[in-house]
Design brief:
The chain is built from eleven helices and 20 strands. It is an alpha/beta fold. The protein has three domains: about 60 residues, Archaeosine Trna-guanine Transglycosylase, Chain: A, domain 4; about 100 residues, 2-Layer Sandwich (Transcription Regulator spoIIAA), CATH 3.30.750.80; about 190 residues, Vaccinia Virus protein VP39 (Rossmann fold), CATH 3.40.50.150. α2 crosses α4, α6 packs parallel to α7 and α10 crosses α11. It is globular. It is found in: Cytoplasm. This is Class I SAM-dependent rRNA methyltransferase.
């Protein structure tokens, strides 16, 4: 097996079970491993560190998999890891919920692999060359474990470019999902688009937060920004909101939300949709003197990396400032960031700055995070990406 030798002292993070070896930490590579090949990693004193997957194209040159030298990375190893990840989540699958993340990359010791279950279908994303090399094994194990109607791949992410991989979308097994697949989350039914929808088809990472936010909306006028296919909107309507306005720039998202409204037999008379740029629409609402009781901000990732954090902080601040201007005393803002580069303390500071600029006094009354099927491995804090705050205007 090919060997990777690290520079002196560069094994410390790896021995603490962090799964990434950066290219600058590598002293020599013995052999000529191709991208996606399993290698043995040693420190400069030739002591075994871990098994990992090598990729010369990537800044993360080795993604570590296993720290016990007695457990080589073979087909049985890959199947065991898939089995373990799925087993840890089976309790989340009920008659009220059939949308679950079954595999969450590094958190499940499977760096570069995302598997989401949407009803009878699985949606798979592959970000790394190591997972790409064993795709057939992974698909076969998922079929044996879950017997899905179909498995569809949505590997069309920037991360693949960093691994030297082209985009890959298409059917991997069974039946191709229809344009709209029926699923249920928190007892609410959705029709989602696996093939063309954002990410892998649906944002199941907000499952808990939708339910928590809905506890505050009864009898309230709600503005749901970046509503996508209606997760927060439908929970708000089901929980008795007096009116909900849903805003998104995507025509497909708005179309799907309207289908979901009918699907759940919710009162369309108290709901309206707006296809618009959220920032521009918030500015327009401010100019018109509109006010809401509850506002939800669930924007896309503004900070894909730490280098983009300053620019992202300004964007988050301006967005939250515009929303706070539409709230009066007692009003609530549920605001989120899915940027892994922004931690919760930084996010609090950004929202505090937004409140100062909006001349609003605020209180943080709840913190939101990602659900248990998106766990954060203790040795990989980078896996904690979703955070949110429930803010009350005093």
């Amino acid at each position: 097996m090919n060997k990777v030798i690290l520079h002196k002292g560069k094994e410390k993070a790896a021995w603490q079970l962090h799964p990434w070896i950066f290219s600058g930490a590598i002293k020599t590579v013995d052999g000529k491993p191709t991208n996606g090949t399993v290698v043995k990693v040693f420190n400069v004193d030739k002591e075994f560190v871990a098994y990992g997957v090598y990729n010369a194209h990537s800044r993360v040159a080795v993604r570590l998999l296993e720290w016990n030298q007695e457990f080589p990375i073979d087909e049985r190893w890959w199947r065991h890891r898939i089995q373990r990840a799925v087993a840890l989540r089976t309790h989340l699958l009920t008659d009220q919920n059939d949308t679950v993340r079954l595999v969450f990359a590094e958190a499940d010791f499977l760096p570069g692999l995302i598997v989401d279950k949407y009803g009878d279908f699985l949606s798979v994303q592959i970000h790394s060359s190591g997972i790409e090399a064993v795709k057939t094994i992974i698909v076969d194990e998922l079929v044996q474990l879950l017997q899905p109607k179909g498995i569809y791949e949505r590997s069309d992410l920037n991360a693949r470019q960093h691994e030297g991989l082209p985009d890959a979308n298409g059917l991997l097994y069974g039946e191709k999902p229809s344009d709209f697949v029926d699923v249920i989350e928190n007892g609410i039914r959705y029709q989602i688009n696996i093939i063309e929808g954002q990410k892998s088809g649906f944002y199941c990472d907000q499952r808990d937060n939708r339910s928590l936010t809905a506890q505050y909306v009864k009898g309230k006028r709600v503005l749901d920004c970046f509503c996508y296919t209606g997760g927060f909107t439908l929970n708000a309507l089901k929980s008795g909101a007096s009116a909900v306005v849903s805003v998104d720039s995507s025509a497909l998202a708005i179309e799907t939300l309207q289908k979901n409204l009918v699907f759940n037999k919710l009162d369309a008379a108290v709901h309206s949709t707006v296809q618009a740029d959220v920032n521009k629409y918030l500015r327009q609402l401010g100019e018109e003197g509109e006010k809401f009781d509850v506002i939800i901000l669930d924007p896309p990732k503004y900070a894909p990396s730490r280098s983009a954090l300053d620019k992202a902080a300004r964007a988050y601040k301006d967005l939250n400032r515009r929303a706070l201007l539409l709230l009066e005393s007692g009003g609530l803002l549920a605001t989120f960031s899915c940027s892994g580069a922004m931690d919760i303390d930084t996010f609090k500071q950004v929202v505090a700055w937004a409140a100062l600029d909006a001349a609003k006094e605020i209180q943080f009354i709840r913190q939101f995070s990602q659900p248990e099927d998106h766990p954060v491995r203790a040795s990989f804090p980078e896996g904690e990406y979703l955070k949110g705050l429930l803010v009350r205007v005093v």
